[in-house]
Design brief:
Rossmann fold, 8-stranded mixed beta sheet, about 20% strand, Methyltransferase family protein, SAM-dependent_MTases_sf
């Protein structure tokens, strides 16, 4: 995106807001993120008086992630409506044979999140979208997307590797960022700081000495090393012990049961750039 082609300037033109992503997608790539979403947003999804709307924003060259999100959220609420949104009309056309109206739809759009009748989304998932943008554009995009949420809605924005073994995402409510979650296939993880390459755009350039996210990953690596003897009982036991040690100095926001899934969630304010 050129410096003059900002999200706000494109919005005034009436065109979809944003630029076409690289479009890489694989089946089950977002399963870890989806599992966390179903757990975290489940209560709000079930409490919605009308069928809730979930958005898969920028699903890529193939619609697999939207199809999978719909299936996973239906286990939480059977009538949830999932809308896959892509800025590339060719990708939308290719996805249409997979649609199951009204429970799964595909339409062209961008960060303006076009929904029928001005509806607001209970969930917006934007995975592997903002990595191509400049860091100084992230706050504007976040604010725009948060403005499309229902009062108890959730925005999940983050990055993962091509096969879904390593994820880091930020969870936001209408008021802004809340938490950062690190998730990994533990059998393939040498150290927690290996997740640094998947930090969202808002954090990845701040993984340098003296910045909070760097300090956090340094402490996580130390706790992981200290828990090495527990590796004899499995990587999950080692991860859980490292997380428990980390909780002495960092505001962790998850329950031990989530950590056994290879996840760790920390308060955004503790890692926010400053």
């Amino acid at each position: 995106m050129a410096a003059s082609d900002t999200p706000s300037s494109r919005g005034r033109s009436g065109r979809p807001v944003g630029t076409i992503t690289r479009g890489t997608t694989n089946t089950n790539r977002l399963r870890r993120m989806d599992r966390w979403i179903a757990y975290t947003a489940g209560r709000a999804l079930r409490a919605s008086a009308a069928p809730p709307v979930a958005v898969d924003l920028g699903y890529g060259a193939a619609p697999w992630t939207a199809v999978e999100l719909a299936a996973r959220l239906r286990a939480v609420r059977a009538d949830v409506r999932v809308v896959g949104i892509e800025i590339d009309p060719a990708r939308v056309a290719a996805a249409l044979p997979m649609a199951e109206p009204p429970l799964l739809e595909f339409r062209r759009g961008g960060f303006e999140v076009p929904l029928d009748g001005g509806a607001r989304a209970q969930l917006i998932r934007a995975a592997n979208v903002l990595r191509q943008y400049d860091e100084d554009q992230v706050a504007e995009v976040w604010a725009r997307l948060c403005g499309r949420l229902a009062p108890d809605g959730l925005l999940v924005e983050g990055t993962c590797d091509e096969v879904g073994r390593r994820h880091v995402w930020v969870a936001l409510g209408p008021e802004g960022p809340r938490t950062v979650t690190f998730a990994a296939r533990l059998a393939n993880l040498e150290r927690p700081s290996d997740l640094a390459e998947r930090l969202p755009k808002a954090l990845i350039h701040h993984n340098v000495p003296g910045r909070p996210v760097h300090s956090f990953l340094r402490d996580f690596d130390r706790a992981w090393a200290a828990a090495a003897p527990l590796g004899a009982f499995g990587a999950r036991q080692r991860w859980a012990a490292a997380c428990a040690a980390l909780a002495a100095d960092w505001p962790l926001q998850d329950a031990p049961a989530r950590r056994r899934q290879g996840e760790l969630t920390v308060d955004w304010a503790a890692l926010a750039p400053r």
